[in-house]
Design goal:
CATH architecture: Orthogonal Bundle
Strand order of the largest sheet: 1-2
Distance between the termini: 50 Å
Strand content: 5-15%
Low-confidence stretches: none
Mean pLDDT: 89
Helix content: 40-55%
Number of domains: 1
Oligomer: single chain
CATH topology: Multidrug-efflux Transporter Regulator, Chain: A, Domain 2
Largest sheet: 2 strands, antiparallel
CATH class: Mainly Alpha
Number of strands: 2
Number of helices: 4
Structural class: mainly alpha
């Protein structure tokens, strides 16, 4: 008898680069609290458009920065200043690699 295994159902969200997200959407997608996102903004890790928290809009690439920041803090215990530096350096490395090849 052939045994059929159930494969997990994966869900995702595909966003275009020019799409912008609200603070609430970023928090929901990345499963973080609003305060954490605001700390990332204060440290310069995220750069939203808008002049007030209610008006903040984030580029789609902000999601990746939030995820990397969370991993650096949780896994390596890096403080926010160190996270800001590490995220910038990681992006610079990625840009240099894309130019090379």
């Amino acid at each position: 008898m052939i045994r059929k295994e159930r494969l997990p159902v994966l869900e995702g969200l595909v966003l275009e680069e020019d799409y912008s997200l609200t603070l609430r959407q970023v928090c929901r997608i990345c499963t973080v609290h609003t305060e954490h996102i605001l700390e990332l903004v204060e440290e310069g890790i995220l750069e939203p458009t808008g002049t007030t928290v209610e008006q903040y809009r984030f580029r789609v690439d902000s999601l990746r920065r939030v995820q990397i920041s969370c991993r650096l803090q949780q896994d390596l215990g890096i403080n926010l200043a160190g996270v800001a530096l590490a995220v910038d350096l990681l992006e610079e490395i990625e840009q240099l690699r894309s130019r090379l090849g």
